[in-house]
Design goal:
Layout (H helix, E strand, L loop, with lengths): L10 H21 L1 H6 L12 E3 L2 E3 L7 H15 L21 H12 L3 H16 L3 H14 L8 H6 L10 H8 L4 H10 L8 H15 L3 H10 L8 H16 L3 H10 L8 H14 L4 H10 L8 H15 L4 H10 L8 H16 L4 H10 L8 H15 L4 H10 L8 H14 L4 H10 L11 H12 L5 H10 L8 H15 L4 H10 L8 H14 L7 H4 L4 H16 L12 H11 L1 E4 L7 E4 L2
Antiparallel strand pairs: 1-2, 3-4
Helix pairs in contact: 10-12, 30-31
């Protein structure tokens, strides 16, 4: 019941009530004068009294809190216990036993047992009077007595009342304990005073017990304690023995958590300790049974993303799992892998995030199949973390409209390089501008580079990309910009190769093989830019050695490097026969027809009838 004036009391009762309110204000002002002196001014408006105007009561901003009125009711009830002439009301007794948990109640029990028998009997008699005096006759009798005593009502003198009062030391006031010992910042103290004011009614011993328990169980530092209280002040409301300890032990035993893991969970989201054990057990069951993870995987998942323990099962986790598994068609085995790589996938809004990205964007706009989405999420699950409206859609619009890619081409680019979405639109435009205007490429050449090597957008135009272009130009003498553009557009993946580990070793090997002739090497690269894309040890060196062994020119590597092993051997045999017969005329061999056809298919032979018995062979590349 709130202590508010409603205008329905008789004059005597209302005056008595006002007297008690005056005593309440004096007690609060004296007992907490130091505390309220440090509270912001708009809260510490103790000097503003109640003003009656047409039976309407105006309260200061301090009394807007429900917890204040709860404590006021308790104080008024406490004062009623001392209405007997033989007892004296002591204001500092207020707060004794209020808001105490089990730890404090046990300590109070000894004090209660020490009451003498007359005191116990007097309290019991007063309780019986309260219980039996609820009828109509009792109310009339009480009103009559009040009317008779109204004239004899004596207002206590303020000096007399204050003479029997003394201030409690700051070390025994919860406000100063939190402010000076725990060192909570002023904004946190304001939050506690305004939103969780009843915390200030706890004893210092009570708060110390809870905070020390948290320290011991998780090896918390002072800063960790401040972070926890700042994020979740209501944790100080909970009983140390009935709430905090059982919850911590449940998490430790269920997930085999270390103190470090437990600390990371609680510091990130202290509200975890405010959930019931039944709530936490249902969430752990979802990960263990519905998703099929083992205990180790669940522990790693929750430590990586503690917010999962704050999500509802029936309202959040289960609907998202059903959507990904049944509607998108992702198998549970693959879904486990994806969720472990990106736990936030189970936290995103189903309608505003998951459906909007997977169905509206990927499937309907880019024409992806469910298998494409599975490939995309397995390749880069973090792609779901990027904003659809502010990031993904502007990039897609740029590729589809300004660069004139089709939706299918954009789909292939995204499947080849999902991390395209990790780069800003400004960065992508900067790379395109470098290719378009500094290298002088046309729109089709830029599209070819982005389609075959979309990873180029991740290169820095101030360092990596420029250094590779300069290396290609200087190493092969590509002074003509047209030749340079032809090489880069012909083999866009050259821009992705390492200069020191890939391109330079190839140049150092090929140049001696061409007899140091830079012009011939340049012609070979312009003719076949993909030559630099083959493996040096597995392809270029073996093929180059075979070509040199039969005496062919080094430029022939541009032909032999592209063939499969079987076709390459057949091509070498024909070259060897041609060289053995003088290079042009080859006599008809006794090879079978099938062998000759196989050779002709490999090297491209055109047969021209002649007057002699032999064949004139015209060899074409």
């Amino acid at each position: 019941m709130k202590c508010t004036f409603n205008g329905k009391h008789e004059n005597a009762n209302e005056i008595q009530r006002e007297m008690k309110w005056m005593a309440l204000l004096i007690v609060c002002a004296i007992k907490n004068s130091e505390a309220f002196a440090t509270i912001p001014s708009k809260v510490a408006a103790l000097h503003e009294p109640f003003v009656h105007n047409d039976r309407i009561t105006r309260k200061s901003s301090l009394f807007q809190s429900d917890s204040f009125f709860d404590e006021a009711d308790e104080l008024l009830s406490f004062m009623d216990m001392y209405e007997d002439d033989h007892q004296t009301f002591h204001p500092l007794d207020y707060g004794h036993g209020i808001h105490d948990d089990e730890h404090t109640l046990k300590r109070r029990q000894g004090e209660q047992d020490a009451l003498d028998e007359p005191s116990k009997k007097r309290l019991i008699d007063q309780a019986k009077i309260r219980l039996n005096g609820t009828g109509k006759d009792s109310q009339i009798e009480s009103e009559e007595q009040s009317d008779e005593s109204i004239d004899n009502l004596v207002v206590p003198d303020l000096n007399t009342l204050m003479a029997n009062m003394h201030l409690a030391p700051a070390s025994e006031i919860a406000y100063f304990y939190l402010q000076n010992t725990i060192k909570l910042p002023p904004e946190v103290m304001w939050k506690i005073t305004n939103d969780n004011g009843c915390i200030l009614g706890f004893t210092v011993q009570n708060l110390e017990h809870k905070i020390n328990l948290l320290r011991r169980m998780m090896n918390l530092t002072d800063e960790d304690v401040r972070i926890i209280i700042t994020k979740q002040p209501s944790i100080l409301h909970m009983s140390a023995n009935r709430n905090i300890s059982p919850t911590v032990l449940f998490l430790v035993r269920s997930l085999d958590l270390s103190k470090t893991d437990l600390r990371e969970l609680v510091v990130a989201y202290p509200c975890i300790l405010c959930y019931s054990m039944q709530n936490l057990a249902r969430k752990l069951s979802f990960f263990l049974k519905d998703l099929g993870l083992d205990v180790v995987s669940v522990r790693e998942l929750l430590v990586a993303e503690p917010k999962l323990l704050c999500a509802g099962v029936s309202s959040g986790l289960e609907p998202r799992l059903v959507f990904l598994h049944r509607e998108i068609g992702i198998p549970i085995s693959d879904l486990r892998t994806i969720v472990k790589a990106n736990p936030k996938l189970l936290l995103y809004s189903l309608e505003k995030n998951l459906r909007a990205k997977l169905i509206s964007f990927f499937i309907m706009r880019l024409h992806m199949e469910p298998k494409d989405i599975l490939k995309l999420l397995k390749s880069y699950p973090l792609i779901m973390d990027y904003s659809l409206e502010n990031h993904m859609l502007p990039i897609a619009k740029y590729f589809l409209t300004e660069l004139e890619f089709s939706p299918m081409e954009m789909r292939r680019i995204l499947l080849k390089f999902p991390r395209l979405m990790t780069h800003s639109l400004f960065k992508i435009k900067h790379v395109v501008g470098y290719l378009r205007y500094q290298l002088g490429m046309d729109a089709n050449e830029v599209k070819r580079i982005l389609f075959q090597a979309p990873q180029v957008v991740s290169l820095s135009t101030d360092d990596t990309l420029v250094s590779k272009v300069v290396f290609l130009r200087d190493s092969f003498g590509l002074k003509n910009e047209k030749d340079l553009r032809k090489v880069i557009a012909g083999m866009p993946t050259l821009l992705l190769c390492s200069v020191e580990n890939n391109l330079r070793p190839k140049v150092e090997y090929l140049l001696p093989q061409f007899g140091g002739d830079e012009l011939e090497l340049k012609q070979a690269i312009i003719t076949l830019p993909t030559l630099l894309g083959y493996s040096l040890e597995k392809r270029i060196k073996p093929r180059m050695a075979r070509i040199s062994d039969i005496g062919l020119e080094p430029i022939k590597i541009t032909v032999g490097i592209t063939m499969k092993d079987v076709n390459f051997e057949a091509w070498l045999d024909n070259k060897r026969i041609r060289i053995a017969n003088g290079g042009r005329l080859l006599k008809r061999s006794r090879a079978t027809k099938s062998t000759r056809q196989q050779i002709d298919e490999v090297v491209g032979v055109e047969e021209i009838p002649a007057e002699s018995d032999g064949r004139i062979m015209h060899w074409k590349r």
